[in-house]
Amino acid sequence: MHPQSVFAERSRSLRAVRPLRAVAAVLAIAAAGCSPAPQTAGASAIGAEWRDFEGTWTAAGSRQSIALGADRKASVSTLRGSLLLSGASRPAVGFRAEAVVLNDSATGMVGRAVWTDERGDQAWSELRGEGTATGNRIVGTFVAGTGRYAGVTGNYEFSWRFVLETEDGTVQGQSVGLKGRVRGGSAEGVRP
């Protein structure tokens, strides 16, 4: 091949590669800007003093039900949503909240919930409630957690109302009167 032809071929190749490099550089910068903020080591624990809070839990998910005779029904619900807290001593502003609940219209409900804060630290709780046709007061008891919620203790209570229920089992709802208190925890918690 003639030297001028080789030079012309390389020039065309470089012109074709430059836009690809520019696109790769833009994507790399965009990806760096979208990555989560670095977590600070030793995030402060919530402390030994009681922290009172109020809030609103909204969630959507699915519910499967079976009839246990004419007047009794059992259901399993899986819900995911957000929990926003208020109060000067609240443990955090908001959480991603998930729950799995077994409800029997005659005997009540039991369930488990996981609250995950903006750092990824979690608070785990057991749920128990009336969940019957005549009442639905639910009590959550904190049992453990990770990060700043390791060793957490306390409880919260609320009522639940479904705002959407479809025939295929899709549900949406929100808490009513959610309030509680929490204390304890350790900065060196277990990471999930």
Number of domains: 2
The radius of gyration computed from the alpha-carbon positions, rounded to a whole number of angstroms, is 26 Å
Mean pLDDT: 79
**CATH class (first level) name of the largest domain:** Mainly Beta
Question: Secondary-structure blueprint of this entry?
Answer:
Blueprint: H1 3-34, E1 51-67, E2 73-86, E3 94-104, E4 108-116, E5 122-129, E6 137-145, E7 152-165, E8 170-184
List key phrases describing it:
alpha+beta; AOC barrel-like; eight-stranded antiparallel beta barrel; disordered C terminus
Description:
- This protein has 192 residues and is of the alpha+beta class.
- It folds into two domains: 1-35; 51-184, AOC barrel-like.
- Helices cover 17% and strands 51% of the residues.
- The longest helix has 32 residues, at 3-34.
- The termini are far apart.
In short:
The protein has 192 residues and is of the alpha+beta class. The chain has one helix at 3-34; strands at 51-67, 73-86, 94-104, 108-116, 122-129, 137-145, 152-165, 170-184.
